[in-house]
Write a sequence for this structure.
């Protein structure tokens, strides 16, 4: 949440365009406001705008600024509303600062600074850090000492970039729990992710918690939290780290939905499960958030059925606050697209502190992310960079890894998994049918998703996808639970979206649909050709390819993603950047 970029030119060229390009790649982290600051011959110059980056670009056209060193920020508001005053960079007389994270002791610091006569223009926690730096400069410290002193004074999570009028050739940076990578290439660059700095760099250094760095046109010096110099390994920038743009598509979300057959194929190729992986394991605990949590719920059905291992799935943000008991020899599996979600990271830390017999494994889409680096073992979803805020291809890739793990002792099912990419390709051909279906849904205020067994989590995920991008209130239910309350919601208008492939649950699901049909008129059924024979014209039918019923969670996710996408586009909402959301959730 919040993206930061810094650039130091090596040949005195203007860095403003490159900062904007970097921020464009980081908009998925927040789009409440954007801003940048540079140093030119007159001193610090700053420009900020509320809303998406294009507003800042438009302002720049009218009021261009230039500089050979600069920092930029795209904001997801935590402290203070999305206003220009609260937009970063935070600037004082002599320093400009951008921040991603939360300063926990900002109130104490602010009170102290106010008492000393310093004034504030924003409601943010971040401004306190800029003002603190200013105070240390006023006390006579040089930028380096001021920055180091500030790091000792603040408590919380941060990725900071700061530039000082008095030392216009250095960007000072520091990290605690919020990501920063430093890029070496045509210019020196710093960013919240590799995609934001990769355009012109060949190698990167990932900063770790407690690291602090000074970046100049000649390179970067890294220091540990005791300020001793450290060597950091440089990693080559490879294609899978780079956001390649939208290509022929109008939105990232549809591009990423369409990429699923290839993401699943690549994920199937890797991720071999070591032979002895489950040998000492007596139970599984899955920790994740949002869509990744839904993947974990599907995993539970598979692990218990095929590995006979008791499996619990927990929302990571709740887990560590209820003093959970962790039994010995538990495989703790965290699932994450970004590899950065703070709730999941903190839940891992809780496990580490409370039971050292556990194996901590991660299913992650971002190698070198904080979560991947803290796990004992990483399964990598080969979905490639996912930019659309709503997770699509990363979700089905997570399910693919879970299936490989759960079926590792079942050659028949492992074999069946190979059919999945082709079935997914066929399901993408349903887009036209789903376009038509979207007209029935776009003006509804509510929608209900129903599934049973391993498709119950997909009902939850389908509902999450629809609500987060289209703003239609949607709920997923286990179809058998309807009669215990939610059935009261059914009327002639509300769409009831039912997942009903042929297989062992078909009859039960079919009767649940009959019950819904007796009370409502907008019943939509996702089924296969065999199942489809049981439904007449009174329901709207979408017929998917037939596949082994264990694999249906992966296949049936795809048309539900398409539905969320097409409804949102019809409504004219911004499908890649839904309101209030950010892709990487680095605040609790
Ligand atoms: C919804 C979505 C979120 C994420 C959640 C966890 O489409 O993407 O619900 O799944 O914020 O994020 P990761 O998987 O990055 O840990």
């Amino acid at each position: 949440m919040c993206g930061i970029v810094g650039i130091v030119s090596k040949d005195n060229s203007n860095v403003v365009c490159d900062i904007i390009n970097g921020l464009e790649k980081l908009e998925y982290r927040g789009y409440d406001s954007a801003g940048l600051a540079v140093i030119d011959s007159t001193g610090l110059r700053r420009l900020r705008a509320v809303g998406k980056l294009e507003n800042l670009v438009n302002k720049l056209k009218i009021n261009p600024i230039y500089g050979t060193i600069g920092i930029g920020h795209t904001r997801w508001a935590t402290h203070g509303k999305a206003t220009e005053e609260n937009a970063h960079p935070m600037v004082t007389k002599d320093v400009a600062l951008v921040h991603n994270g939360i300063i926990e002791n900002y109130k104490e610091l602010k009170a102290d600074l106010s008492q000393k006569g310093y004034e504030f223009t924003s409601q943010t926690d971040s401004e306190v850090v800029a003002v603190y730096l200013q105070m240390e400069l006023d006390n006579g410290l040089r930028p380096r000492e001021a920055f180091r002193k500030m790091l000792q004074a603040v408590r919380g999570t941060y990725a900071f970039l700061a530039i000082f009028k008095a030392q216009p050739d250095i960007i000072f940076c520091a990290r605690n729990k919020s990501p920063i990578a430093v890029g070496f290439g045509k210019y020196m660059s710093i960013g919240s992710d590799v995609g934001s700095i990769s355009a012109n760099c060949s190698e990167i250094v990932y900063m770790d918690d407690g690291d602090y760095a000074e970046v100049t046109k000649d390179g970067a010096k890294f220091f540990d939290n005791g300020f001793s110099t450290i060597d950091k390994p440089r990693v080559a920038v490879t294609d899978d780290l780079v956001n390649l743009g939208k290509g022929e598509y109008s939105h990232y979300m549809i591009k990423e939905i369409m990429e699923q057959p290839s993401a699943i194929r690549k994920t199937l190729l890797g991720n071999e499960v070591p032979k002895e992986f489950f040998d000492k394991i007596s139970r599984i605990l899955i920790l994740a958030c949002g869509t990744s949590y839904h993947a974990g719920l599907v995993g539970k059905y598979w692990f218990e059925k095929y590995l006979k291992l008791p499996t619990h799935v927990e929302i990571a943000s709740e887990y560590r606050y209820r003093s959970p008991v962790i039994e010995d020899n538990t495989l703790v599996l965290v699932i994450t697209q970004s590899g950065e979600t703070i709730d999941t990271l903190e839940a891992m830390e809780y496990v580490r502190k409370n039971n050292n017999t556990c194996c901590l494994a991660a299913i992650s889409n971002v190698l070198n992310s904080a979560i991947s680096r803290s796990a004992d073992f990483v399964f990598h979803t080969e979905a490639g960079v996912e930019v659309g805020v709503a997770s699509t291809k990363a979700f089905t890739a997570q399910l693919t890894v879970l299936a490989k793990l759960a079926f590792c002792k079942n050659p028949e099912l492992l074999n069946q998994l190979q059919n999945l990419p082709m079935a997914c390709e066929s399901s993408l051909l349903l887009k036209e049918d789903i376009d038509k279906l979207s007209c029935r849904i776009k003006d509804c205020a509510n929608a209900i998703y129903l599934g049973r067994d391993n498709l119950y989590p997909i009902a939850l995920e389908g509902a999450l996808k629809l609500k987060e991008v289209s703003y239609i209130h949607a709920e997923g239910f286990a179809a058998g639970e309807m009669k215990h309350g939610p059935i009261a919601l059914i009327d002639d208008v509300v769409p009831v979206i039912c997942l009903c492939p042929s297989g062992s649950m078909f009859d039960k699901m079919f009767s649940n649909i009959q019950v819904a049909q007796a009370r409502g008129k907008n019943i939509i059924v996702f089924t296969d050709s065999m199942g489809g024979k049981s439904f007449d014209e009174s329901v709207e039918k979408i017929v998917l390819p037939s596949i082994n019923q264990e694999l249906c969670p992966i296949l049936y996710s795809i048309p539900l993603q398409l539905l969320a996408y097409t409804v949102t586009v019809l409504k004219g909402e911004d499908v890649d950047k839904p309101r209030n959301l950010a892709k990487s959730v680095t605040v609790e």
Q: What stands out?
A: The chain has a mean pLDDT of 95. The radius of gyration is 25 Å.
